[in-house]
Design brief:
This protein is α/β, with parallel strands linked by helices. It has a single domain (3-271), classed as Alpha-Beta Barrel (TIM Barrel), CATH 3.20.20.150. The protein is built from nine helices and twelve strands. The chain has helices at 14-23, 46-58, 79-96, 116-130, 155-163, 177-182, 187-201, 236-243, 261-271, and strands at residues 3-7, 28-32, 65-67, 103-106, 109-110, 138-142, 150-151, 171-176, 207-212, 214-215, 226-227, 252-255. Strands 1-2-3-4-6-8-9-12 form an eight-stranded parallel beta barrel. Helix 2 (46-58) links the parallel strand 2 (28-32) and strand 3 (65-67). Helix 3 (79-96) crosses helix 4 (116-130). The radius of gyration is 17 Å and the shape is globular. The protein starts with a strand and ends with a helix. The chain binds fe (iii) ion (FE) (2 copies) and zinc ion. The site of zinc ion has 5 residues, from helix 6. One fe (iii) ion (FE) binds next to loops.
């Protein structure tokens, strides 16, 4: 069985997130490392981080996913913006060592007219500057909807970034169902075909986590607007197939649907086969 959870507010600290996750039937969760719009992170409390690790062991959680602020852009045309991405990600990765063995997911970036190749080179350069051999965190590239000049809307682009990384063992991919469907991969009619394509281009062993979201927009719309499970263009069935898929077992699957906690609890129950 996969691990199921949702995005949680990190404002009350690490252990509080673990307890909230347990209270809604989750055994993983995602959180922003800092305000999603960027800015300074709260001081990290090592005792609180250790308490979460103990809670996760005790309650048999799967790996959790830290999400970088979505405003950083490691392939901006502005050197200062790239520098800000590098500093933010460096700080985040060092903080993640307090909760070792988990994931740090980020949106690869937008090349803003510089071209896909130039963007990919800058993203890989940033990763190589901030990662180190013995780090305990695996860094995940999120599959994107291909909105504007976003990189990561094609599996080939993710593969190219991974190929340029100095620490491939510490890299992986997080597949967002809304994004790939918006991006033109039809998981609804052919989930196995898309997974086969992912395996061929990236390698299924590099798939480390999923974001489970329905989409407010039709197939291949390149829009990226999340919807509650079953209420968008993907429909409920695909989420049952994903939750039960043998190739996706043991992966953390995180909801980023427009919900408060009771809505998330209901979606987690749905994924676990309740109703
Ligand atoms: Fe994301
Ligand atoms: Fe996502
Ligand atoms: Zn999204």
């Amino acid at each position: 069985m996969a691990y199921f959870g949702c995005h949680l507010s990190s404002s009350a600290g690490f252990l509080a997130m673990g307890k909230t996750a347990s209270s809604i039937g989750a055994d993983t969760f995602q959180f922003f490392t800092r305000n999603p719009r960027g800015g300074r992170a709260k001081a990290l409390d090592p005792a609180d981080a250790a308490a979460l690790c103990a809670w996760m062991r005790e309650h048999q959680f799967g790996p959790i996913v830290a999400h970088a602020p979505y405003t950083i852009n490691p392939c901006s045309a502005e050197p200062r913006t790239r520098e800000f991405a590098l500093e933010t990600m460096t700080d985040d990765l060092h903080r993640m060592e307090a909760v070792p063995g988990n994931y740090y997911n980020f949106h690869p970036g937008s090349h803003v007219g510089q071209g896909v190749e130039a963007g990919i080179a800058m993203i890989a350069e940033t990763l190589n500057a901030i990662m180190w051999e013995s780090q305990q965190t695996t860094v995940l590239l999120e599959t994107m909807a291909g909105k504007g000049s976003e990189i990561g809307g094609r599996f080939e682009e993710l593969r190219e970034i991974l190929d340029r990384c100095d620490y491939p063992e510490r890299m992986g991919v997080c597949l967002d169902t809304c994004h790939v469907y918006d991006g033109g991969y039809d998981i609804v009619t052919d989930l196995d075909g898309v997974l086969t394509e992912f395996d061929r281009v990236v390698g299924l062993h590099r798939l480390k986590a999923l974001h489970l979201n329905d989409s407010k927009n039709p197939f291949a719309s390149h829009k990226d607007r999340h919807e509650k499970l079953g209420q968008g263009s993907l429909g409920e069935g695909i989420f049952h197939r994903i939750a039960a898929h043998p190739a996706l077992r043991e992966l953390p699957m995180v909801l980023e649907t427009p919900n408060e906690l009771p809505g998330y609890a209901a979606e987690i129950a749905l994924l676990r086969g309740g109703k």
